[in-house]
Amino acid sequence: WHQHEGPRRVKRAWVIPPISVSENHKRIPHLLVQIKSDKQQPGGVIYSIKGPGVDEEPLGIFSIDKFSGKLKAFALDLGGVTLEDPTDLEIIVVDQNDNRPLFRQDVFTGRVVEGAEPGTCVMTADATDADDPDTDNAVLRYSILEQGAAAMFSINATTGEICTARPGLDRETVGVYNLTVQAADMSGDGLTTTATAIIYLEDINDNPPEFTKEEFSMEVEEQAVGVDVGKVFVHDKDLAGSPNWLAKFTILEGDPEGAFAIRTDPHTNDGVLSVAKPLDHEVRDRFELTVSVQNELPLEPAAPASPWALATVRVGVRDVNEAPVFRENPRRVSVLEGAPPGTSVTTFTASDPDTRQLQTLTYALLYDPADWLQLDPHSGTVRTKRELLHPSAFLQGGWYIALLLARDDAEPPLSATGTLSIEILEVNDHAPALQPTAGVVCGRPGRGGNLLLGATDDDRPPHGAPFHFQLSPQHPQLARNWSITRFNVTHAVLGVLVELPEGPYSLPLLLRDSGTPPQERQQLLNFSVCHCGRDGTCEDGVLAAATAGAGVTLEALMIILGSTILLLALAGLGAARARGRRRALRKGLLQRSGDDVRDNILNYDEQGGGEEDQDAYDINQLRHPELFSPRAKPPMRRDAPLSSATPPAPRKLPSSPSDIEDFINEGLEVADSDPSVPPYDTALIYDYEGSGSVASPLSSIVSSLTDEDQDYDYLSEWGPRFRRLADLYG
User: Is residue 562 scored above 90 in pLDDT?
Assistant: First the structure.
């Protein structure tokens, strides 16, 4: 009441007593509270509510009697006019312990190394509770219901963390622990639930490997290499396949030569013994090895110390048949060339390694390409079957190679091959031979009066060059007209000391090699003394110089080389024509055929008239042109060294192609019946090539320049084809 205004009525609010209700109430509907508006109207008041639990989710939880009132109520008169302002009603739901704890997973897994110290935490097994966390309904406590005989683990009652409780965790004893864990609400006095905790112990290297027994026995064949003999078995308590389990083996004693090796089988961890070097039963038939084993990784410091495990391995070497052996292979021997048949070469035998078995060896020739040897099958003695000749296509650098086979009589038999290398020693059994045996020389002292002589020898060094040339000691008078000076190790120069008449000559020479003992030979040098020109060279044509055997001047060498190349080219072109005319030649001169004799002669290497036209070839070109001149002299013959005998009457020359055969046969008969002169002396008359060549004459083998004026050093720069010339003149 206010003093000045007088008494007035104060507005009153809703009458709403406190409201609370327990969850999970079983009697529905349950009267919570009654609300009442003080603005009572005639005819009554209608009440209504709205909000969560009424017309909002969750729907249908609360209701109100429209005449009595409940929750958020509205007071209206019967006409629908609001009598009171709406107000909020708070209903408190009282929590009950109606939810069990729930573990986050049914099975918890953890790992811890064996031997871990107490207090080592492994994992946390935690749970949740759906009740009001502000009440004891959600306060949880943890415990271990079951873990085996020894309580090795403990759990934190508040957090659920599981840790080791005592020492002595050994994976080799118990590798896995299964724990039953409980969670209870109401601080351990309410509802409960359980879960499983599995704890695995991780391995450490705390156990060394051990042999399954102290002695092992095995056997292996001799001569076997790289084969496995057997296994030694071990056991390791640590986790199989882990690095802590792997073993390594060592041969400590009994194998000083390293004949055996031992390795680890990665699947079984056992030791595998194998043969590293060939074993010989006859040398040693039994081995006794001391083998040790240990882990590849060192033991943990906490593991008890223990010595290496040792075992004795006895290996027997089994005897088998072995092939014969040639101790000296290849066998090298020497035999003089020309050794007579039956000459002993060597005794080449093998030995049988099987000394404890009675076996007999036999021998056979496996390879004897020249069929030079014979072999005793029982003693292995090799002898010559025929003369060993040198040179031979079966020799390689002077060595003859043969193969021998040695075979035992075991079952099955075994064999071995031996190589016999025979050196054919050179014997000085050949005298040097003059090469060439003919030539042409100018009959005037000087450069043109020199002839280069050469020699060859079938013997190999040192029984060949240097060669010694000299005039025959049986004819001392030769030294008045001739001289021989050494040119190099294989050549000498024959020089003219006095002016000599033209014609053929035969000069006896003595040739000797440098072998031991030296071999010598007397041989005739058949040559012609030509007509000398003013420059000291022959003027009788090209062929005379060619028969000298070698050109000592650069000009002669170049002409000879060019002629050779030209002849080779012409020979290829003429080969086809030669085949077609072979039949005509067979019916040629000697059968007096009716064919054109000139044509046959032209196409079968007849030099003819030099460079004159072959189409106009005349058979008279075969005759020396000087025979037809009024001043010509009959041909002279030199039948003895340095003699100028009276020439015989000239033979009748053929006047037509039909009597050429008689002319040739007559010349051959004269040459064959002459005991003092070789047939070449008579055949010289047919070597004339004509006088029509435009080329420079080669009748002299000596250059117009002296050797002192001519520089031959450039020959060494012309390549390998001129190497011989460079050696002669450089």
Answer: no
